[in-house]
Amino acid sequence: MSDNIISPLGFTTEKNFYQLRQNKSAIECHIGAKFSAQPFYASLLSDEQNDTLNNAGVNGEFTKFEKLLINSIKDAVMNTEVDVASAETIVIISTTKGNISLLETEANSPRLQQRIALHNSARVVAEHFKNPNKPVVVSNACISGLTAMLTGKRLIQSGKFRHAVVAGADVISKFILSGFQSFQAVSDKPCRPFDANRNGVTLGEAAATVVLSSGTSGNQKVKFLSGAVSNDANHISGPSRTGEELCIAVNKSLKQAGLAASDIGFVSAHGTATIYNDEMEAKAFSLANLEAVPVNSLKGYYGHTLGAAGIVESIVSIHALQSDIILPTAGFERSGVSSPINICDHLQPVKGAAILKTASGFGGCNAALVFQKSYS
Hints:
The protein is α/β, with parallel strands linked by helices. It is 31% helix and 23% strand. The protein starts with a strand and ends with a strand.
């Protein structure tokens, strides 16, 4: 697997991972009527980083969202033998909102309706790389990134493609921030996943790309073993109160991988720092016999990057596994969930060759993926 992360912590995976190892968070307090009348905490690209993105040599009329995707894909495939223009490569785009921010700056018109359509952005990105295939869009709330990666894996397994370029991105706008504020779900401080004093989510913007290849291709230091999704059908915005449905996805993924809970070195949780999400995940991990396994959440570093979150956090977790470390959960001090859970609060070594990545989202959706070191 080859990959890239573009975030306020840096424009490459290496820079991001270095900053994380230094316990550097991208979350800051922002003041400005462009997003909110009140100060708010978020992980946003700086003006300088936006200028860098604009001057990155991507020719054509692209939005910030599309530039993030294009630059992330370009960096991810740069040092690989994967040809994005090949019919053997499928492009998969993960996002929740796409170009929705254009509604704030442009008058309604047929052109605007086309520009905000997710399939149109995917087509624009795929055409930039001269990919001949119809791109796939995955927009399934907060599990979009994991679902997109699982879709790529299954398309390769079907034999139709040799490679899948899976890219996710979302850009924070007034529309998105106000939506979460309307749920009274946004924290007035940097988020604190699983902590007793947590009081909501922190949002962030980022892009990330992972290049998946068949077993005979690419970097096989870590293998993407399995994945599964489930839905608890509990509420449009509230997760399951029992955690059973996320547990179903976890158990199915472990079974497909031929692993037991005791084989997992650490769990990269969704960990949004909302009251109900963290409680549900803790219950799910307990049901799956993972209560003793170290768990971390990266939301305290990046905020919730929506359609990019699953890919960003999978990439970071894969690099952590390769480096034999578990990154701490920024902001965590004391457990605030009812089920026993082993939250990682300091940098520590990994005990085990496999890791689990989970995510959950609006509409009751859940996803779980398993990655393992390869010694072949």
